[in-house]
Amino acid sequence: MELITQLFDFILHVDKHLQAFVISYGPWVYALLFAIIFVETGVVVMPFLPGDSLLFVVGAMCGVGLMSYPLAVGLLLAAAILGNQCNYAIGRFFGPKVFQWEDSKFFNKQAFNQAHAFYEKYGGVTLVAARFMPFLRTFAPFVAGVALMSRAKFTFYDVLGGVLWVVGIITIGYFFGNFPWVKQNLDKIIWAMILIPGLIIVAGALKQRWARKPVVLASPKN
């Protein structure tokens, strides 16, 4: 319970924790940030790390000269791209092993075929959009690997999504992160970064579920 409390405190006050780390350990902050972004995107069991808010705060700290903007962008972009590649490789490794369970209740051949077809057709858009959605960005590359999305296609959209996510959010933080109103309401902005994409995912899932429900027509009265 204490660990969960500390995690929430880090997520909601990432600016204070990161600034304290920079003051205490200097350049080692880049190694810490690289590890956090890599683990969030590269290890399928770590979807709760604060990627969006962390990038925003990094940009704000670059804006006041506490960190180097080019170095932060370069390292964290590499972490995001390599993390997705690692996650994809894990899914690609476990996929064939799951296929051996074809006669098992744990494997659904039709579901796999649908996932594979979906990722070949819409996987690029999914991977780019997932970069901006907590939890989903951790699972999307793994599922792409399990669904055997082609490596070349995955890599292209991995790099594209990584550039838009890392460069985009750090740059926004660089220019707007130190506005007085933003600093005073950073905890609310962080909650919005977490909740709004989550609500979009839930709404989409509910809409899809309702669309699948058969329409029952009342029989005409004689």
TrEMBL record:
<feature type="domain" description="VTT">
    <location>
        <begin position="49"/>
        <end position="174"/>
    </location>
</feature>
<keyword id="KW-0472">Membrane</keyword>
<feature type="transmembrane region" description="Helical">
    <location>
        <begin position="28"/>
        <end position="49"/>
    </location>
</feature>
<dbReference type="InterPro" id="IPR032816">
    <property type="entry name" value="VTT_dom"/>
</dbReference>
<comment type="similarity">
    <text>Belongs to the DedA family.</text>
</comment>
<protein>
    <submittedName>
        <fullName>Membrane-associated protein</fullName>
    </submittedName>
</protein>
<dbReference type="Pfam" id="PF09335">
    <property type="entry name" value="VTT_dom"/>
</dbReference>
<keyword id="KW-1003">Cell membrane</keyword>
<dbReference type="InterPro" id="IPR032818">
    <property type="entry name" value="DedA-like"/>
</dbReference>
<keyword id="KW-0812">Transmembrane</keyword>
<feature type="transmembrane region" description="Helical">
    <location>
        <begin position="56"/>
        <end position="82"/>
    </location>
</feature>
<keyword id="KW-1133">Transmembrane helix</keyword>
<feature type="transmembrane region" description="Helical">
    <location>
        <begin position="189"/>
        <end position="206"/>
    </location>
</feature>
<feature type="transmembrane region" description="Helical">
    <location>
        <begin position="156"/>
        <end position="177"/>
    </location>
</feature>
